[in-house]
Predict the 3D structure of the following.
Amino acid sequence: MWFTFGAWIGETLRRRHGGHWILFGDDPHTWRIGFSKIFLEIAPFVFAEQLLRMGSGAIRKMITEVEKIREQHEESAEKEPQGALDRFLPQHYLRLHTVPLGQWMAMDFATVSRLWVEAPTKDLIAAIREAGPRLGPQNQQIVERVVEALSRANQDKPVAEQTNDRGLFEAIAQIIGLRRATAPIAIDIMERVVVPAMHVGLPDGFPPLDEDDLGNLHKGIELFVFFCEVVPHQHQADDEGFLGSIPHEHLSTPYADRNTLEIGKGDWVVVNPLYMAPMLKDFDAAKLLDKYDDFVKYVGSQPEAPRRRDDGRMLAEQAARSLMDLKATVGAALTENAALLFRLLPPPG
């Protein structure tokens, strides 16, 4: 019954608003509907099963959720010209489940290091229990698992003398040391547009377009990616550095064992916040978007450039939001004398 109900929900919403079925394997619970006018995906079979288990109130729940989707589409339609092309294709949704995510964190590593390396394990447990409630009830199971693992250690010795488990260290650091974190974003977006946009800054003008530039436009390069590639950088990047930006001398390891970092496998890396601070100090998201809009008009005014609709605005908005998020996290690291860390997260399930 849940399968038929889920198929009806999904196909009804797809036909009403426009969208795509995204199928992952043979289990319908993993199948998604990705809408084509707004960036939103739903799992109709999971939703159907939840409604059937609810019993009383299921119809009201379904109507409420369907109404939210309708309202989001109406809000989007008001901003788009009539007859606008679909903004989101299946590949946009496939990326959500296949591309790793990058995240920045401001971490009080002085406290974490003291409790991990110097304090007896019983003091570390006490600090975890004190900090745990700040994480909310949804994370208390994780806190208890960490405490359970530490309870098996010698309580009078520092935990660093008893284990080099990086996973345990990271869990503890997030519980007692995390001060701020950015929203995770796809690592290719971070490398291709977010970090380059930080280096571009707020340009005063735009350079002439040469034959290679015009060729890229004819090939369909996204306009915000083009903006980041064409506009000269106000802040010089180290192309051979971390994320194509950060010189290696501004990087260090957070781990007491000092062994090789494997960032691709999720190891954290410490980044000197003073490297990014000058680039982000005067950054303003609205001003970046205004500069990008001016650039789109500039490209459109070039007689040899192809007539293109602005397909890069969503990417520009995401980059602007991400840079404001990064600015706040770098600021937290500096004002609270905390460490700035980067980590790679696996794609969402």
In short: Residues 313-335 form the longest helix (23 residues). The chain has a mean pLDDT of 89.
